[in-house]
From TrEMBL:
Residues 42-390 form the Amidohydrolase domain. PANTHER family: BLL3847 PROTEIN, CYTOSINE DEAMINASE. Keywords: Hydrolase, Metal-binding. Gene3D superfamilies: Metal-dependent hydrolases (3.20.20.140), Urease, subunit C, domain 1 (2.30.40.10). Its EC number is 3.5.4.1. It holds the Pfam family Amidohydro_3. One of its GO terms (molecular function) is metal ion binding. This is Cytosine deaminase. SUPFAM superfamilies: Composite domain of metallo-dependent hydrolases, Metallo-dependent hydrolases. The keyword Hydrolase applies. CDD domains: Bact_CD. It comes from Rhizobium esperanzae.
Length: 397
């Protein structure tokens, strides 16, 4: 089965025809030159810009209440406190719609905005066991043709301070999770080496990648990053480990951030940031210049952590650029890279990009070029997954 997408515009190559067969890009040629085969479907892209599918690299499908009733945000009582936020999360989940209903709504929002690949953290701890993972695995199956979804077994209640979690993380991988996660080894479990030994133990035993939540500020956070880098290199996991949030990199003096960036680059450890509200956040340009893969995600969409989030990774690129002070075309292109090619590298996506042999996952919208798309965030888009139209102008097809 083949489709010819005629008269599209690639960011770097001008007007093109894109031939798609069995979900993959078979050929890209100058517009008007591709021969139309008998029985082939032709889709005229009308000169619009064709961009690769957006990569949602960090989301919590199990804990959002997007699409359900509005639950007002509760601030922490004494400054940002992960333990307190997790307690609020438990309370709110108890009064929300069923998890599968909420997860579907969130997935559909993201797909409609052009996300074609996603990494979601799913709570695995003594309180919920593997039940959240079981639900999200079922939902993943339903949406298999619309989105590629990786799941991280995420110890939201710590590992050492939540007895049984270490074994649960291991079981979660057997059960279908793709990666193992972690959470603030220093401030939450108060035992950096013990926590990391558990996380990397699962990674080594099960042969899975790692993605660790690290909200810890300042030098505690930087020290934790150094320990994560050391373990990554010891196990030869370069390119397979991510630190999410890494607020600390935005707290410390530039020379300390630069040294950490060099360590991250040499260890092949990527950094995820969502350009979070009032939190300090990693210096994206400095990290990229050092060779660190920086990727992004919505993180929380309408949940106990904050009321924001719309599942639009192009809008997220704008926020990253805005908070980073990115103004030049080169900088705006860098913000776009964070939500596309860098995301694909961090997630180790197979067949990503607008090239021959890649999956035909792309979005089509009205913009002169990438830089303009990042600042204008056009709402009107067509989203193609494996060459099939899956969403149009914010609605699933
Ligand atoms: N940003 C976060 C969302 C959910 N859980 C966390 O630990 N952190």
């Amino acid at each position: 089965m083949s489709t010819l997408f005629s008269n599209g515009r690639l960011a770097e190559a001008g007007p093109v025809d894109i031939k798609v067969r069995d979900g993959r890009i078979e050929a890209i040629s100058a517009a008007g030159t591709a021969p139309v085969q008998a029985g082939e479907t032709v889709v005229d892209l009308g000169g619009r810009l064709v961009l690769p599918g957006l990569v949602e690299g960090h989301i919590h499908l199990d804990t959002s209440f997007y699409g359900g009733k509005w639950i007002p945000h509760r601030p922490c009582t004494n400054g940002f406190d992960v333990r307190e936020r997790v307690a609020f999360q438990h309370e709110n989940m108890a009064i929300s719609e069923p998890m599968d209903v909420r997860a579907r709504k969130q997935l559909e929002l993201c797909i409609a905005n052009g996300t074609t690949a996603m990494r979601s953290h799913v709570m695995v701890d003594a309180s919920v066991g593997l039940s959240s993972l079981e639900t999200i695995l079922t939902v993943r199956e339903e949406y298999r043709s619309l989105i590629d979804l990786q799941l991280v077994a995420f110890p939201q209640s710590g590992i050492l301070t939540s007895p049984g979690t270490s074994d649960l993380l291991d079981k979660a991988i057997e059960f279908g999770a793709d990666l193992v996660g972690g959470l603030d080894p220093g401030s939450f479990d108060r035992d950096i080496e013990g926590h990391l030994a558990a996380v990397f133990g699962v990674a080594a035993r099960r042969g899975v990648d790692v993605d660790i939540h690290l909200h810890d500020a300042g030098l505690l956070g930087v020290f934790t990053i150094e320990q994560i880098c050391a373990r990554t290199r010891t196990l030869g996991l370069e390119g397979r480990v991510a630190v999410s949030h890494a607020y600390a990199l935005g707290d410390v003096a530039p020379d300390i951030a630069k040294r950490a960036a060099d360590e991250l680059a040499r260890s092949g450890v990527s950094i995820m940031t969502n350009a979070p509200g009032a939190q300090s956040f990693p210096p994206v340009a400095l990290l990229r210049a050092a060779g660190v893969t920086v990727f992004s995600g919505s993180d929380n969409i309408r949940d106990s952590w904050w009321p924001y989030g719309d599942g639009d990774m192009l809008g997220r690129a704008m926020m990253i650029g805005y908070r980073s002070g990115f103004y030049t075309d080169e900088e705006l292109n860098a913000a776009f890279d964070v939500v596309t090619a860098s995301g694909a590298r961090a997630l180790r996506l197979e067949g990503y990009g607008l090239k021959i042999g890649a999956k035909a996952d792309f979005i089509v919208l009205e913009a002169e070029h990438v830089a303009e798309a990042v600042v204008s965030v056009p709402r009107s888009r067509s989203v193609y997954k494996g060459g099939r139209l899956v969403a149009q102008d914010g609605n699933l097809h």
